[in-house]
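Suppose you are handed a protein chain with no further information: no name, no annotation, nothing but its sequence. What can you learn? This example shows the usual starting point.
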Amino acid sequence: MLRSLLAYVSVSAFATVCCFAEMPASAAPAVSMSIPTAPQVDARAYIVVDYRTDKILAAKDALARMEPASLTKLMTAYIVFQELAAGKLKPDEQVMVSEHAWRSEGSRTFIELGKPVSIQDLILGMIVQSGNDATIALAERIAGTEETFAQMMNANAKRLGMVGTHFENSSGLPSPQHYTTARDLSLLANAIIREYPQDYKWFSVREFEHNGIKQQNRNGLLERDPTVDGLKTGHTDSAGYCLVTSSLRDGMRLVSVVMGSTSMKARENASTALLNYGFTFYDTKLAIKGGAALASARVWKAQASSVDLGIRDDFYITLPRGQADIKTAVDVQPRLIAPLALDTIAGSLRVFAGGQTLATMPLHPLKSVAAGGWWRRLIDTIRLWFA
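A reasonable first move is to predict its three-dimensional structure. Written in structure tokens, the prediction is:
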């Protein structure tokens, strides 16, 4: 469900002022299309969601607990980006490599014990080369120890609504209580793209060289599909081959999560098939512009006798291609009394198609309304007695 719908307002609380407005035909073609089932792919679990609306377009065992392997590094990157945005880390800051980071198992950036490495190089080593050593070095720089950093990871997972996730380390090495779900990883990927667009660029870097050793990004879709610009691969023998992918085509961004494929090629083919399915059979459009006047309402005891109402943010909706026309109905409170702040709930907006309600959200004044003088307040008080 869209974040804009969280502030749901019951329509029954208001007197209805029906304002049915049909959306432009270009926003929703009138001819319907039957949506086929999602393709069968080589994966134990998967999900594909629209980035803007978080609508799930296809899923298989998306809530099942799975080993994330190096997809864990997405949460480590998320926290690193938090620290950068807060000014607690600087890209050119030098970090001394601990023995714990240097001795880490698995994929490596080949940082050297006791030698300084810049935050930027550690980020590239973590994202491009999936280096466990670089990842642990970042975790230790931020939290002191990897164990403490794992507590930060779990706190952020809880805040993002990742209810099926628990982390025990920063890199994704197997552990009995280290797990996540495809759905949770889609929430995390969306949060990275939405909250840290300035850092998301690191996920599309094709290769990185450190200490004279050049390694390629393990995400082969960066080479195969020019619309793919992230995010991360993962693999262990027990987790299988995993991939979180984001693709932007004609202004529509989809995120896919594939977990437990049998090979690198299989995870890429599965991701491509799911993304193609989503882009072919679904469409995301701007349905209502934030800040646009959707209704005008009478305001009592005010300096101004009326005010325009609308929604704060742009409202996007994901529908099957060929869905019936989108319409809206506006319900306005019968007695709006000044003063009105911008966060005043003055009514509700219902969006529907084919007789089915798709979303309901609050209407707010598009500008604040000050109280009128004593005479205006007196006159309107008398009028309200008979209204």
